[in-house]
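Annotated sample (chain length 243).
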Amino acid sequence: MKELFSDSRADFLRQVALVAFLVVLLTITKAEFARASLHDAGEILQRSVVAEIQLSAEHSGATAPSDPETDYVRELLEDPDAPTIGNVNGDITVYEFFDYRCPYCRRVAGDVMRLVDEDPGIRVVFKEFPILGEDSVTAAKAALAAHKQGKYVAMHELLMGHRGNFAVDTLAELAVRAGVDADLMIKDMSSPDIAAHIQRNDDLAALLGIRGTPGFIIGRFLVPGAISYAEMRQLVKESREGG
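Output written by the structure step:
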């Protein structure tokens, strides 16, 4: 009887171990499938939308196929009111969608500036994408109002470095430090054209499938999330090699 009990217990333990192994295997398989699906989806978007748009954005001179949605995305990407730094005739364009309250955006902000400083062929287009509440919208409006005074970068960097809320008094203090006329900035923040600018960015993000921050288009690659400086450089390199 003792031996029978031992055999039954051993069989039971083997069955438990087998089930546990199958569960782990299934979990790994599902994770690999999810990663593959995400990768495939990104590649499809890159070919069907981003690659065509970049023909215009990178000033290649080639003629891309035209359809209403692609034309609208191209129009939104190349918004003449969007703050831009770097080489306006650069061979690689980086579009950044960000929110001033996003900790991951703050983490990569310095890398974006470094990319421009170290690569004379880079153009960066900033896309204010305030999705984390009313404070985010207020900060975005302040940055775009500072842009009207030609002080976008200074205000942008101060907003990115700020910890805390974006009350009007706080924004006024940051404006003074950035060399911005604070009273004019606060007045311009309520202008319809700034609200329309943010709405255009929201529309563009929706068309590209960007739902969080930060989001990038680096050359011909759509990047949904924060990446390292080395990864940014690699995507620039691959975009150049891909022509």
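Annotation: Strands lie at 84-86, 92-98, 122-128, 215-218, 221-223.
Annotation: The CA atoms of residues 96 and 157 lie 14 Å apart.
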